[in-house]
């Protein structure tokens, strides 16, 4: 049996998590930095709005596409190595972005930022699974998502100041230097596990393929992925791309009011995340139903807003923004679900697969909203009106419907799987007791 050499869920665990969380904050900051520098980027690289949006889409494509290989590497080398690798990639790419002057070179730099970013979140979640007690994990997972997003938003103000004061090159070069500081912190503080373990083990390709198949074949992994898929995309699409123009062009709000509502989303993420973490930790058997309840609460105000042929009152838009923001914390439940079905040593692959869900749905929704808008009104951003946005934002229902069906499907399969492979696990969760996966066995099946 592996020897435990450090306490779980105590001071050392929190220090390690804080360092890893700082890396995640920096990753989200790098990911979203063009939100502050968008107009300057358009001028610097002489590009239009479509080409500018390509930066964001490309980063998300790279991020989602890297999740499976990152998960495999994470299970082999551990969180510490992956955090360092991600920091090296992001730091180098952001430094290059500070100096490049051509659009193709800038695109390449942002793609590498996306590759480094892809290594961070799942590495932090694996540390949470390794270093915290089962009852602590849902809260720490929610805090990871919340603080990461809030920290990035707060960090945007200094970058905006730096761009005005220092200029493009020095501002982004300074931002990249933060990665060097965190590399030192990761080397000095972060440890992969509270247990004594040897170095990375060599895994043959056939064995690796079989292990990935086992993780993906587990209905709990798919339940986590579809949970992430169904709950996350609406918030991501709204916050990263279409929310601001929807509020201004379709709903007639001023830019300052629309910005305030987007900031309100951040506040609501914190409040709803704390409530959801408590519910999930105390009602593990009902986690899927809790998420579906959140999704239905998102659908109701969207339906009320999109059915109106006139702009919605401000109070309804506030409700819409808040309930849409709840999808962010709800998507974190997908990782907690996967943890119940997959042991820690395979959590990297499982979390990578779960993480694909929401980002894939977000990419597809972003693209389809743009396609519908262009089909209805070829005149460009300035020509879109309320009816155009009502039609375009309705594509969300396709993804909600698909996700709800799949969550219900894999919830049923997941419960049957636990009854078959881990007798007593379901009854334990019904009583509000967490289930700790003992490790894969030959009975797991795929």
TrEMBL record:
InterPro entries: MFS, MFS_dom, MFS_trans_sf. It is a multi-pass membrane protein. Residues 16-415 form the Major facilitator superfamily (MFS) profile domain. The keyword Transmembrane applies. Keywords: Membrane, Transmembrane, Transmembrane helix, Transport. Pfam families: MFS_1. GO terms for molecular function: transmembrane transporter activity. One of its GO terms (cellular component) is plasma membrane. PROSITE patterns: MFS. Its main location: membrane. Signal peptide: none annotated. SUPFAM superfamilies: MFS general substrate transporter (SSF103473). It is found in: Cell membrane. The chain crosses the membrane at residues 12-29, 49-74, 81-100, 112-134, 146-164, 170-190, 233-254, 260-280, 289-308, 314-338, 350-373, 393-410. This is MFS transporter. The lineage of its organism: Bacteria, Bacillati, Actinomycetota, Actinomycetes, Propionibacteriales.
């Amino acid at each position: 049996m592996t020897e435990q050499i450090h306490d779980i869920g105590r001071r050392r665990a929190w220090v390690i998590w804080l360092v890893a969380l700082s890396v995640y904050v920096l990753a989200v900051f790098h990911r979203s930095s063009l939100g502050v520098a968008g107009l300057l980027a358009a001028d610097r690289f002489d590009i239009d709005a479509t080409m500018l949006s390509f930066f964001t889409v490309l980063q998300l494509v790279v991020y989602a596409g890297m999740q499976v290989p990152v998960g495999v590497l994470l299970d082999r080398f551990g969180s510490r190595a992956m955090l360092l690798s991600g920091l090296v990639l992001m730091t180098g790419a952001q430094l290059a972005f500070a100096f490049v002057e051509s659009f193709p070179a800038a695109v390449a730099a942002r793609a590498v930022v996306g590759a480094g970013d892809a290594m961070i979140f799942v590495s932090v979640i694996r540390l949470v699974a390794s270093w915290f007690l089962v009852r602590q994990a849902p809260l720490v997972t929610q805090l990871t998502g919340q603080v990461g997003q809030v920290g990035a938003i707060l960090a945007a103000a200094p970058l905006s100041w730096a761009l005005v004061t220092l200029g493009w090159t020095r501002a982004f070069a300074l931002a990249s230097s933060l990665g060097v500081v965190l590399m030192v912190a990761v080397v000095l503080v972060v440890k992969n596990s509270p247990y004594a373990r040897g170095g990375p083990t060599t895994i043959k390709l056939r064995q690796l393929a079989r292990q990935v198949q086992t993780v993906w074949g587990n209905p709990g992994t798919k339940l986590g992925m579809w949970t992430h898929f169904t709950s996350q995309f609406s918030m991501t699409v709204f916050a990263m791309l279409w929310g601001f123009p929807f509020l201004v062009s379709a709903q007639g709000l001023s830019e300052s009011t629309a910005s305030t509502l987007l900031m309100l989303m951040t506040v609501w993420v914190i409040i709803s995340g704390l409530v959801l973490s408590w519910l999930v930790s105390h009602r593990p058997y009902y986690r899927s139903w809790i998420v579906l309840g959140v999704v239905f609460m998102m659908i109701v105000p969207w339906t009320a807003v999109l059915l109106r042929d006139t702009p919605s009152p401000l109070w309804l838009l506030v409700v819409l923004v808040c309930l849409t923001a709840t999808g962010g914390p709800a998507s974190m439940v997908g990782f907690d679900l996967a943890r119940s079905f997959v042991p820690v040593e395979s959590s990297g692959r499982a979390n990578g697969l779960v993480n694909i869900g929401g980002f894939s749905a977000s990419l597809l929704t972003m693209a389809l909203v743009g396609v519908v808008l262009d089909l209805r009104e070829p005149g460009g951003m300035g020509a879109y009106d309320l009816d155009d946005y009502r039609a375009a934002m309705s594509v969300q229902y396709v993804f909600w419907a698909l996700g709800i069906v799949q969550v219900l499907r894999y919830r049923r399969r997941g419960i049957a799987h636990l009854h078959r492979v881990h007798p007593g696990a379901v009854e334990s969760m019904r009583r509000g007791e967490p289930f700790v996966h003992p490790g894969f066995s030959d009975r797991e099946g795929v």
